[in-house]
Amino acid sequence: MGAFSHPFRAFTAFRRAAYRQDPAPRRQFLPREFLGRLLEGAAARLPLLDAPDLPWALAEAVHDPAYLRRWQRGEVDRADERALGFPWTPAVVARARGSSGATLAATRDALRLGLGINLGGGTHHAWADHAEGFSFLNDVVISVRWLLDTGQAQRILVLDLDVHQGNGTARLLAGEPRALTVSVHAEHNYPFLKETSSLDVALPDGTDDAAYLQALETRVAPVVAAYSPDFVFYLAGADVLAGDQLGRLALSPAGVRERDRRVLRWAARSGRPTTLVMAGGYHRDPQTLVDVRLATLDTALAAFAPRGF
């Protein structure tokens, strides 16, 4: 059984050199001490595996090959960099490839174990042919496409509970009947021009625990139950917290934990293999963000750990 009383592990690109070379705008929101504390806390809960590189062929199944080549070569302009949110460097490409590889590896784990975990991921603003909002590759859509193309899932739920609408995901999976995209987000937050998901739940500024959980119960749960997915991607954004630098909602740490508990317990009890990605989180207090991230891990492990293991 080893040091852990469960079979799960987490994949991370945070230990790559590319994460030590983050451009300054990203460090402002994700300070280095956040990554160290997160990795230390996660390693006490489950084995951490370094992210494998995503094969470019899988990225090309979702993204325009010319777009990918242009970014690989650094043939971008200031408008491209402004849309992404920070300057181009080789580390930007390496980091995205590692993060997307981590989501794919976690998806393979979910098929085998029931639960797969990427400590990062959730770059849901990336489109087929352009980057937006810290997102160059759409890691979840790449893994969705891999599942569909290999016939390992037929009814996939992408449950996006990041504070920002997953506009890239909505556009990339529009018209795909084998995928249900659900986004619960702040109505007046980025992206200011929204796309159309299968279900969009737009919440007013300052939404608190009670209103958020009620929206999950009354607006999201019936749609998900009617769809009856056979695989789940859960984007567990921590940027719904009150005090997040890029969020407009007002959940407490206890509210986020209850959100996670409801989603993950449903997925585990109904036997849906689930890939968990952490998505956004930019809290003013790094320790609060670390605590909430680790609580999400604890909740996932409690929901999915087999009894008697």
Automatic annotation (TrEMBL):
Keywords: Hydrolase. Residues 59-284 form the Histone deacetylase domain. InterPro entries: HDAC_classIV (IPR044150), HDACs (IPR000286), His_deacetylse_dom (IPR023801), His_deacetylse_dom_sf (IPR037138), Ureohydrolase_dom_sf (IPR023696). Pfam families: Hist_deacetyl. Belongs to the histone deacetylase family. This is Histone deacetylase. It comes from Deinococcus hohokamensis.
